[in-house]
Amino acid sequence: xxxRLAIPLLTAAVALSGCKPLSFLAYALWxxxxxxxxxxxxxxxxxxxxxxxxxxxxxxxxxxxxxxxxVSSVVTEQLRQNVKGIRPIDxxxxxxxxxxxxxxxxxxKTALGKSFAADRVLFIxxxxxxxxxxxxxxxxxxxxxxxxSVYDVALxxxxxxxxxxxxxxxxxxxxxxxxxMRDSDAAIRFRTQQILAxxxxxxxxxxxxxxx
Length: 212
Known about the structure:
CATH class of the largest domain: Alpha Beta
CATH architecture of the largest domain: 3-Layer(aba) Sandwich
CATH superfamily of the largest domain: ABC-type transport auxiliary lipoprotein component
Radius of gyration: 22 Å
Low-confidence stretches: 9-17, 19-27
CATH topology of the largest domain: Rossmann fold
Number of strands: 8
Strand content: 25-35%
Mean pLDDT: 85
Helix content: 25-40%
Order of helices and strands: HHEEHHEHHEEEEHE
Distance between the termini: 20 Å
Number of helices: 7
């Protein structure tokens, strides 16, 4: 129903039956009214300098050499667009640091953050990352299993982890794989990374979700 028709209906409802029909019709006619507010799980990234650091094992890195930079870039951009006052470190600077120091992953997270003059480190561990359907060379489906933690660089290392999310899972496409004639490997990987970034970023800012 168009809004042009909806407004007279709402007016008539108020005149005939009081305010309750107005609330009902507003709920029915405007999808935006069927939403609820979700508060940030952790609001400490706002107004902070944040380094998004991605870890994966050598097997994943061998098959996808640029995965750390790719995931860090997409997550960083999602945070930049939605978290008020955030000052993200350039992902290229972080990737360069990782390439130049093979022992970077043995550093304390607070020391790692201080090396970038960051207030917080969002550390993402890719436990599984793939873009092909198992056993197939022509069917694509992005899969990510990850863990994510936020470290407050100002705190002692043993107390620095201030937020954590285990067992993050992303599958794209969700129901069926896609053939290479429809979507390229790169497109599947990018979309899978976007879904991960959106899921993660929503943990750090207030947002609305549909009421089911």
